[in-house]
């Protein structure tokens, strides 16, 4: 027996297959409340504020004057609050449970950081304030720069990049500036990128006009050293390499790679997305890195996602330090100030490639990152890396009997599995991920890195307790055994218990509906 509820959504008194639930007239499920989109809540005349009627005036818009409503929903204040609170309950977050996304490092954001970011003078600082009124903010940026340089073993840092890909662009633009200064910008046109790299690496190189040359991996999941050396030549500008790499493995030949790159006259750009795995343990500068971006949201706990603002500082070696972008903070006898122009920079002894952004614009991220560093100290940051690696290896060792790992040996901060354990079950990686939703988990990173078929990349981070990881492991084992026991319906129809059932994700990506339109009025029966 089925019909439509009062919100126009189908109802059914029967379950919906494995894990199915009884539907209701309202579309609500006890405390799980159904929620339409905001436009469907439109109630002409409703408003969150009372506005006085305007005095008589002579309009000056002529034919451009608005003749009717502009299509924005009219909603009262309580309805607005309820709408967004209900929507928030449909989002999975790190505050709700373990977030196993590999490569993304979804770690807990300490509330102390949030308190610091809201302090007067930091939470309300404005980029156009006179320098003498923001000495504390500039000192904080200078202090953050100091510790980023200390942790990486690099002499210079640019704080202005907004996130990882922006940081990659910054680092590669500094490399290009260095090549221009050497008169080799036209002859060095090729950038080497391992096949397991983040997709933003080759995209960044291509954006700057470089030809991307892929480096294959060995059966161990690391850069093929001999293949790499064979690709070196006088036309190579740089290598863009991630360490630990996107397979969750440390590149053991990193120093040999750096030495070979430098001997060929090129530069070494390191993707710092996985710095959380080695912070306090390894300094990239000691490995021969020339430039590396740092995702503050991954390593230093600033909020991840949400549309920004983000922060992806870039550290530079001595060879690239003079080319770091404007603006940057200096401390002299007159206090703290920003070097804003190329003239000031040249007087300061540097030759910046230019300016990436109008303003830094992410003071809250700087405050949170520095609060994280100061509260942990050097021993605490070292423990961050150790616990992240310990948790990932615990997951890898615990799941090896039920899952299939593409590479032998321990991992770093994330455990990588492939889909061989699902062979013959009729269950795909996507089906497995959807079933995880019914169990209350956000799926792990799927189908990445691309070098592993049906990849499942799991990063528990250091902020998960053993109890939390144990429950996750037990759940994953149960799902794996169900798939092998021919309980196919549990997977191919999942999720059953989410606010929405499985979507046609390919169709949604290729034919997105980006504009809401009111439903057509129903015709009266004749």
From TrEMBL:
> Which reactions appear under catalytic activity for this entry?
N(6)-[(R)-lipoyl]-L-lysyl-[glycine-cleavage complex H protein] + glycine + H(+) = N(6)-[(R)-S(8)-aminomethyldihydrolipoyl]-L-lysyl-[glycine-cleavage complex H protein] + CO2
Q: Which GO terms describe its molecular function?
A: glycine binding; glycine dehydrogenase (decarboxylating) activity; pyridoxal phosphate binding
The top EC class, named as a word, is: oxidoreductase
Q: Which GO terms describe its cellular component?
A: cytosol; glycine cleavage complex
- Residue ranges of domain Glycine dehydrogenase C-terminal in the record: 386-485
Its Gene Ontology biological processes? glycine decarboxylation via glycine cleavage system
Q: Please give the residue ranges the record annotates as the region Disordered.
A: 1-25, 489-526
Report keywords, A-Z. Answer: Oxidoreductase, Pyridoxal phosphate
Q: Does the keyword Oxidoreductase apply?
A: yes
Aminotransferase class V domain ranges (all copies): 191-305
- Enzyme Commission (EC) number: 1.4.4.2
Gene3D superfamilies noted in UniProt: 6.20.440.10, Aspartate Aminotransferase, domain 1, Type I PLP-dependent aspartate aminotransferase-like (Major domain)
Q: Give the protein's function.
A: The glycine cleavage system catalyzes the degradation of glycine. The P protein binds the alpha-amino group of glycine through its pyridoxal phosphate cofactor; CO(2) is released and the remaining methylamine moiety is then transferred to the lipoamide cofactor of the H protein.
Q: Which NCBIfam families match?
A: PRK04366.1
Q: Name it.
A: glycine dehydrogenase (aminomethyl-transferring)
Which species expresses this protein natively?
Answer: Parvibaculum lavamentivorans (strain DS-1 / DSM 13023 / NCIMB 13966)
